[in-house]
Batch of 4 targets.
Target 1
Amino acid sequence: MSSEGSSYGDIHRYEPPRESTAAALAIVLLTVVEIIFVGLFTYGLIGGWGLSEVGNMFLGGILAVIFIDLAFILLLYRKEFLPDVMIVKKRRRKWEDLYVREDDVDGTPFSEESPWEGVKRALYPYYKR
């Protein structure tokens, strides 16, 4: 579904989420696996596995699996259960708001100020801010 509005904030495109049952079941199963690995990691911390070199690497591997599993859960949720919405935004240069004021967007002529001031302004963008 698209709209013809072109003013700032109008919804340009809206696609509803698929909300598939297979994705919901996959999220539930991945959540169960996540809980199992969190429990194993907690048991390893309490049991003192981290005191040996091999146990410490094992705990690091479990922690990596926990975050990878969480990433897949969030990826499935975003892909299947959040709508795809594109809104109209104001286009501007990426650096425009960070470094210069609105009246200095086009720059200043080199001859108006001393050469040293121009070099300082080029090297240090937050000059006189």
Note: The chain has four helices and two strands.
Target 2
Amino acid sequence: MTAQTPSLRYAWYVVAVLMLAYISSFIDRQVLTLLVKPLKRDFGVTDTQIGLLIGFSFAIFYTFLGIPIGRLADRRSRKSIILWGIVLWSLMTAICGVTDTYSQLFLARVGVGIGEAALSPAAYSMITDLFPRHKLGTAMGIYNLGVYVGSGLSILLVALILKLISVEGMWQVPFFGEIYPWQTVFLIVGAPGLLIVLLIAFTVKEPVRQQTSKAKVEMSEIRAYFSANRFSLLSLFFGIAFMAFSSYATTSWTPTLFVRKYGLAEAQAGILLGAIITIFSTAGVYLGGRYADKLTKDGYPDAKMRVGYQGMLIGTLLAVTILAMMAFTSAPLPVFVVLLALICFFTALPYGAATAALQEMVPAPMRATFSAFFLFVVNIVGLGGGPLAVGFINDKIFGDPNQVHLSLACTVLLGCGVSCLLLYRGLKPFVRSTENARLAVN
């Protein structure tokens, strides 16, 4: 193995370690989804405030800081940026466990978002420098397994922890005083990130960048490239953003739907949803990456965008079915669970392929910066908007906590439909952008 051509075995190892970091980040990010009931009881908050806490509090700095961090990752050590990010989000997650007001918890969640902003722009750039084009979809798909494995495991872990602790009364914690028992969840899930820091620090090396002679580009060049390729880039950015809009709404509010509509306990709801996401969403993002690589080998120039469009088309049809079932039938639990598993699978198909598509659409020296722009749009729309939309619709339109199933179904249909349309419109422009990216570095 040389510095310029790392072995594929080592490259897959780096992907696995970065995926582990991504899993940790999503566990810390999604941990609130099963804590809606104790939060409302102990902090006296509304569904809209819950939506703000789950999504917007995290997304506001995660999205805005991602761009300067991505710009930094195009110039400085991506490994160091990732390490500092993991340390910060792990510590801020633990701090969430010792807050005693809604405002303090909101600010701690902002801190988690600041730390997590460091991971993906740098990780995307590192992975792209380690793999040939025909394996990039699979590599990105495996990295992005972290989204769904982390989401599923966070829900499963919280469900299991809630079964082991009492959610009433107060506990005494040394140095911090009294906290609610459910807040210990934050202390538990924040700790593993520090172990991942050691793993990356001692076993992962900073990859040699592709096209190093043009590694430093000015912001004016980035603006010019964006202007020349804006239709394809915006179709991808907002297409995946609205996919995330529906996905974050689903992971954030389905446990509450299970509790309010079907009478499940929080732990039961978490185990059920966690299993669905861990199995079906994880399979979707992995197979989406593999399918995109197969289409690339078969000669489809729009392969990675095509996979996204196909997944969201099926997701839209499933969302229509779920809304109709929720609105006009008794919606039996087994039928809803089957439909939920299917929509989780198909709406996960685009994610690994889409992140690989972005790397092909822009020149190598701009990849981390454009990845940060991509994540900005995805998270401000998806993470910031999806959970908030469900809470807002429930409070302001239906005005009834027990109508959360309709609020969620409307939100998911909106996200899937818009995503499908945008990814379809971006098929031909995507091919032109991949050609522009190749010409830019020759």
Note: Residues 149 and 278 are 5 Å apart (CA to CA).
Target 3
Amino acid sequence: MQHISLTDLNLLIKDTLNTQLEPSYWVVAEIGELREARNGHCYIEFVEKDEESNQLLSKSRATIWSYSYRSISAWFQSITGESLKAGMTVLANVQIQFHEVYGLSLNVKDIDPNFTLGERARKKQEIIAQLKEDGVFEMNKSHALPMVPQRIAIISAESAAGYGDFMNQILDNDYQYKLQSKLFVATMQGDKAAQTIISALHQIHEQMENFDAVVLIRGGGAQVDLDCFDDYELAAHIAQFPIPVFTGIGHERDETICDLVAHTKLKTPTAVAEFLIRGMRIYEEKINLATQNILAHLNQKVEREQHKLNDRKHSMRYALKKHFNKAENQLGRYQQKLQYDVRKSFQNTHQKLEIYEKTLELINPETVFKKGYSYTSLNGKSIMGQKLKKGDELKTITAKQEIKSTVKTAENRD
């Protein structure tokens, strides 16, 4: 049986690969592991997994030598905003190398950062599509924002500069508006960030009646620091949160998925604070304008009523004057009639008095006595109607005398 040595076999494989393969290939693979050596070399393990089961399909060792790694990594970071790391899917230009001792390996000559950007964008669009398919993408935007949100739940790192900027803007606002705020501490970057933010949302949910809105804020940072805000679970929790969520994540170039599902997205923590203060200012201006409109309306109404009152006063004054003139004329007529009636009554009374006077004069005893008549009485009563008898003492009064006499005889005359 013909045989060859292992070395000869490996050299045959090496020679066959060198003659049969292209000088390099562009390969799509995920970085399973990445290690930077002290000498500047970068050692990578490329892997490919089944998209559905995540089962490992293939694996290869790769190396980026130090003289290439410095330029490749710097260029990649300048384009993508992040450094090469495990978990990334990249498009790498590789040379296939086979060493009779170390076996098969890949020598990385270049990595296309634009592919990684596109891959990230693809994953991002897949998450957005999934949120829309789940029917939650617009849920938080549908919540009615309170007219003046003043009770704010804040999710941030306590030592974050963004949180400090937000609080300074709130506490030192020019209008001296007061907001009630409570901080729920969370990690705002790294692998654990999404879960700590979700935990903070759960805490807020337990006391949700105390808040009008949630503010998710952090300071600025590298693009890679924002990866946690493209997490499906975190975005789904924000989208379905039962009160409005504001984001001020502190980036200018791109929007995270959390920004897209939030009720209101703003660029920075300071912008969130300014938005809240501006909302209160607008509300105050509306109140002031409404107050001015009410006062103006009341002034117009008072002015109209004053005109009506003046018109009625003039009308009443005219009516009263007319009434007084009529009454005065009528009173004058009454006065004339009364004067006439009184004068006539006086005349009639005077005439009656004259008649009474004459009558009294006629019946005055003195007048009668002067005509020769006399008055005779018995015991102070006229003798008329009395039956006199002998011995009665009579008194007789004349005009000039009072005569006393005694009855000697009294005879009836028939």
Note: The chain has a mean pLDDT of 88.
Target 4
Amino acid sequence: MYTEIKGGITAPKGFKAAGVQAGIKKSGKHDVAVIYSTVPASVAGVCTTNTMAAAPVAVSRLAFESGIASAIVVNSGCANACTGEQGLSDANEMAQLTADLLSIPKEDVLVASTGIIGVTLPMDKVTAGIKNAVAQLGPDEQDYSTLAIMTTDTFQKHCAYEFELGGVPVRIAGIAKGSGMIHPNMATMLSFITTDAAIAPELLKQALTDAVNVSFNMISVDGDTSTNDMATVLANGLAGNKQIETQDKEYTTFKKILTEVCIFLAKQIVVDGEGATKFLELNVRGAASFADAKKTAMAIAKSPLVKTAFFGEDANWGRILCAVGYSEAAADPTKISLSIGNLTIVKQGLGAPIDEFELKKIMAEHDIRVVVDLGLGQAEATMWTCDFSYEYVKINGEYHT
């Protein structure tokens, strides 16, 4: 249905990007990025539900309301969160400067920030960085823009695909950052998606919302939901397909590929979880409802006891069942089953005979699949998480200092 292509965030027609070193980060690494559509694009976004949402989130939410945008300006190294009126003024200044440099309305600029909370932006550096980034905008600058949104990430997270809508080749691409402070709704993450598909703003919003609900809202690294989370998509229509205006076959295809992009990036965030040594896929099936399946998966995913057990390669299944029990989802201890990898270790609530050597091999793997069958219905949900290691404590103990 789709083909992986090169080019990253600028693979779709009409998009340019740049990332620069503005000196916001003490490390001197890239920290300001601009992503630009050469024509106005349909836009949709989903933001954090944290009531302490950062200033750039407030500015971007207003931009989302119009359904049209042309640019995204991002800085890393400073979250511009819990910074009061000064923070809001600075976020608006970022949008205005970007708009002036690109000769577009300020309302067409999205703003995003990530980094330390409670610190105001060094606007002299931010301003210089934005000017430099706009001057360097091009179709081959995606790697630098991806670098510029990273904080504790250890690798770049990006993908690009090509598919067809009504016989017309269409491209879609995405980048993301996130490593710690990851948990719905949403996670400490930023994700920016571009596509040259033509789609009405209201349908783009519905497609993104549905995609986020099974991707970015189904990951957890440490159970913390940040102040700055944002996932947004720009669709500029330059592919030339007939604009999607109803929920027809073309809409279904578009949403499916958008969801694939979001799931890929979400998984990459979990793989790069701070200090992570294991990537865990949690599938809860046999639930009475999707809500119950999700609650169960989330309880397991955020349990420190479960996560540390996987770090220690200890198949302590009692911790998993304990999390199921306090999830507040409907569960019957006489019907529940549990498998790790390809081994069933709990059947109808009781420990099952297992091959200890085979289980040890599974627990030593990096990617581990856990399946919990509640035995109560047909609903299921899948969530992705990672383990807790010594390195996670070290990273976060030293993050500010």
Note: DSSP finds eleven helices and 16 strands in the chain.
